[in-house]
Structure formats: structure tokens, C-alpha cells
């Protein structure tokens, strides 16, 4: 494997010290920031995530803050999801689209109040799009990146660990809701959410200075729970069907192609800049869509470029993420497949770096 | 050192195959794309760059294309540099600022014609800002990322190598001008430019399919010139004072703080969205500015976070890039220093990971 060259441009996080002490072995770069990818091994981290509890440095989920009288109007301009009934204290997964309906990001929007939002972004400089829209449409709103760094606590024992640090009340936070909890005299937003299917929380750490004290408090409180430093796990997130912006979808794709049509209320999302472009696709449906795909044969290598999906000698799609799953004893994968071949059970061929492998479209992800 | 985890999200380039065959040892990530940083060693690559010729995969300098009746108007909205006298065939280094005068990117603008521009970007999704501005201001212009991947040929023998592949006429291309040259029946933009002070060219490779044929043609033609695969070199670029967006400056900084005031015609750049914010700083000057700084003592490690610059017990600046220079026998560095301490010859102290080191502000970079 190849090394990563560090520089100030690849930003460290408030938790980097803890990550290094825990023996991080590999990084990726996400929003110009270091994101750990391996501690012991991808397989060992996977097993531990499913059995115990991990603390994840996901500071790279940078926030874009919208603040001011036009904040809610601007938020609705960004997404085809209807936000009218959303309450402060809720988190919504919101596809963000440009004027052609192409996906620019797939963040979680956190509604702090009517005039204040955080957008917890995937890997693209969504700040630039939002600032451009706010400027061009002359909206009365401030848009910037605040000093907020998410720290995730994930795994079956996440709730016990969180209760030990934040008190029993954290158990009452429902999925995709958040509450305010005290740490070191600081009021922090704590949401039940995260980029795994093992359950857990994301703490929006406001102020980098308390990053390591909080990291250490979680590690200390979790000793008896076998807590470890962890990170989003390639195998587990593919099993669970959690998409990765830039890998599984790009600005070429509509939300409907990404299987995110259920988050689009295109008829009523008045004000969304991509609404008109999406009306037809919302009505007729897309011609290609994300699908779970099982690939036969031995463990495939890292999918670092799209692998062609073939049928009858023709290209009918692409694989964008793949990994060997120890629990399901097959290669699990995420692909985009044309409608002629997207029905569950359809047999296809995937051109992997280790040769053409038979594969099939699955009914559901592995959850 | 830590490894890099590959995924489709960290895009490969049309030249990746050549880069791998040449034995790349480390990457950074730039515009969601792999950028090689080391082949033999940073020092060996540095020596070779100054003596021979290298071919660089800088496909990560992605292009944003502006096309349509409002393309030139939009381009002027993005930058405080006066573009009125710019001709097709010219390249301009253009600071890009938001409405507060903060730097969003420092690309090279390539004027193809009155209604068609390429913006060859540094490491941020400038596409999003430009699309947002175009949408919000309802401009009649198409904005997208075309399939154009720059390949740089840098070093004292660059002109000879380019002439061998593109013909003698390439010698007539002046600095920051471009011409159209044929390769494999394809018309390519070739500019005399590049991210080194050793001279050379950047080929805007339109169509990824001819990436490896061109790479191979350059390697073949350059055998007698000791051509090698190379990459932007940390030592050489600091010696030459070439700034790195994200390291040496961020959106917190104005162009004037970055020493780019000479590229700002703030009084006359009517239409630039950041003009009003920059008028005062253009008149009174900034209170901190980029400076070349020599750091005493042994070779410093990689500067992966800002190092405080101190004087009289107070913080007066920061170092953002640093490396040991074999040719100048000192640590060369780029820093941002407050006006109280920015005069050439001022003695300061830099808090490096190997301790506090004495240092001084230099009159010029090492060129």
C-alpha cells in the first residue's frame, strides 16, 4: 500500500491525538480532513464494532451553519425534501441538488431553531454552493463553517457508554432526534445517529478545546465495555447499504437514482432550486438505480474505480463499493444498475481486477 | 508513516497507470483526486527536478468550464483582478474571493474565447461556488467540470522534451500564454506554466483516453534527457514561494494578506462580489501577510499543522509550510506574520515539534 503525505491542507482534528495514540494504521481524506479508516485491521475493527462499542473521530463531517431570518428558506432551496413539518430537535437526511437535480451532497440537516441550522456534510465543499446561492439570491442569512466536530459512539454498547458519560437521560433520545447534554460545563448537541447500523450517537463537539477531554472521558468510562477507537467500517457500511458520496453517487446522479426518492417531496418542495428538473424523474422514475449486489468468487480487492457490470455482452451498470463480508460469506457490493437488469435475482457479471465474476442483484442490503 | 486507504471517492486519473508503474511512494488528496507526492525521495526528486525534466500527473488541477454569453461577466464576478484587457490565449493567476473578500481558491484562469473559460483550480470545490453564483444571479452560462486533466512537464530540459513531442513551435509559447498543439490527432491547449520555478509547460489533456499514450510518448522521447515521473516538490515550491491553498491560506484570508495584492485591481474590478469588502484593505493594507521565513536548527519535520510564530512572548504569526533545503542549507518556510514583525531581518521564534527554534523574516523567497 501507498503512504499518505501529511500537510496542513489535510486538516487534523480535535481528536487526532487520541487517534494516533490508538495506533491508527490508515487514513482517507474527507472534506480536506483526516479520517481514520483502519486501526487493527478492517476485519478486526468490523467484528469489534458489531460486538462492543467504538469511539469514532468523524470531525470530517464538517458543519455548514445557516443563521438568520432566511435560514429556513435557504435550507428548503437546497433540498427536494419537504421541511415544513420539521421541528427543532430533529435531524433529517436531506439530498442536496443543483438546478439540474444532480446530487451535490447527502448531509444530515440538524434544525437547532427556526433561524439556525447545521448541515452535517458528506465529502464535498457544500459550504461553497450554499454561500453562492445565499449571495446570488440576496438572502438574509449568515453561512459559515463553525468550530463543531462530530464524535461518534457506535456499537451495541453505545447507549451504556453514553449514559456513563452524559447521564441516563441520553437513553431517551430517539433515532434522528437530538438533545442538549452537558460536558465539562459545555452544552453539547447529542443525536442518536451515525454511519453504521449498529446503533449509537453523534456528539457535535462545539469548541475543539474539549475534544481530547471528551475522547479521554469516553475511553475511561468504557474500559469495562471493551471500548476502542474505531472508524466507519467499509464492510459494515456496505452490508448496511450506507452510501458514500463520491463513491456510490456523484453530481451526475439524481436522488431517485440513488434510491433516495423517499426523501424527495418534489411536488410540494416549492423553492428547491432543483425542483423543476426533478419533477419528471419523480413521476416516471429513474432508468438506473442503486442496488445491493452479491459478487461470487474469492474476496475482491479494494474497489478504487468503478467496475463494469455486464449482461449479455453489454454494460448495464457499475460497482462503486465492494468488500468481502465474513458474516454473510460473500462479497457484498453497492452498484448502479440499469432498469433492464435491476430486479432482485437478476444474474449479472462484474469485471473485477481479479477477473469477471458472476454476481446477482439482491432484494435488500444485508441487515 | 501512515497509509492511504483507496476508494472510488479518491479519484484515479488518466495517468495513474504511469504513476504506479513509476513506483509512486506516497499520495496526497487534492480535489478528491490522487496527487503523487514522492517517487524516490523528496530530496532525490528535488535534485532531479532542478537538473533534468519531469512529467507530473496534476490531473487534480481540475477545470471548471464557463461557457455562454455571460461567461466573461461571471469570471469577473469571481475575482478582484481586472480582466478587461485579457485576450484569448492568455492565462491569469486570479485570486477568487467571496463577498467578504475571503479567498476561496487561487486558480489560473484560461481564456479560450470571449464566451469560454477554463478555471484551473487549487484544492477546493470552486465548481460549487461558481454554480451557486451563476444560479442565484440568473446568468446565461453553463458551468461544469469537463474531462480535462493537466499533465505538467517541468524542469530545465522541459522545452526540449516538449519540442520533441509537439514540434519546435512549442518553444515560442510565452510565459502564461498558451497555444494549440496536436497530439494523436487531438487539438490540445499547451501553456507555459506550472507549479515549480524550474520552467515548463502544462498540457490540458482533453479526453482521458489519450492520457497514457501522451504519458508514454513523453517518457519515450525523453529517455536521453533523463526524464522521470515527478510531482510538485515540497522543498522546491517553498523555496520558490509558491503558495498552497488550504495550507498557506484559507477563506479566512484576503488576497492582500497572501501577498496577492498585485493581482487585485479593487477600484476598477466592478462586478466582483468581494469588491466592496476589499476596498478598505486595498487602501490601508493588511495587518498580517505571507512572508518567507528561514528557521534555524536541524531539519524540521513535516508541517502538518500551523506552528506558532512568537516574539517577546506573544504570538505574532504562524508557519504553514516548511522543509529543509539542501541547496540553501537552512529550513525554508512560508508563514503569515503580523505587521509588527514582518520586516525583513526581524528575529522571531518558531514553535516546531522539535522545540522552539530561532528564525528570521527574509527579504525574498529563495529564487
From TrEMBL, chains A, B:
Residues 298-363 form the Aminomethyltransferase C-terminal domain. Substrate binds at residue 202. InterPro entries: GcvT/YgfZ/DmdA, GcvT/YgfZ_C, GcvT_C, GCVT_N, TrmE/GcvT-like. It comes from the Bacteria. Residues 20-266 form the GCVT N-terminal domain. It holds the Pfam family GCV_T_C. NCBIfam families: PRK12486.1 (NF009133). This is Dimethylsulfoniopropionate demethylase. It comes from Harenicola maris. The lineage of its organism: Bacteria, Pseudomonadati, Pseudomonadota, Alphaproteobacteria, Rhodobacterales.
